[in-house]
# Entry
Amino acid sequence: MPWAVLIENDGIAAAQGEWRHGAGRGCENLVYVTVSTGIGGGVIAEGRVLHGRKGMAGHIGHMTIVADGELCPCGNNGCWEAYASGTAFTERANRKLASEAGDFTAKAVFDAARAGHKTAMELVDQEAKLLGIGVVNLLHLYSPDIVIIGGGMANDFDMLRPKIIAHIAECAMPPFKDIPIVSAQ
# Structure
């Protein structure tokens, strides 16, 4: 007997999982952001998965956050992904920490920041601000009940969340300042 198979974008599938079984249970409107090798995501709007034209909604990593900025793997310049993805974070850390021995992973930078390493702490703060810039854009675009952050970088969400929240408090329009920003479940 043949089986019906549905193929879904990974960011949208993660958004659906969080909506049905995770941090977004009970929400009619949510944005899921995955911060890993790249930045992707999915949007639930008014209790429905937002697929958009050709199923292409949710490519949130490719919104421009810096005019004429760094080249992104998508070919555009200044994308959120080019600045705040795990890959971008690790590349930035390795450039900044080039004088120190080794090739740094994101985990090593976060561990160093927890241990009080000044440059690592600055890198984590910069990453949180970059994530905050994108999240503010998502708040203004989608007006969600909640924003859920997942992906490999969410393993250290406790260090990123305070600065993301601070950026939201500083830059979001008043109706969006109190929207919860949580880690994926």
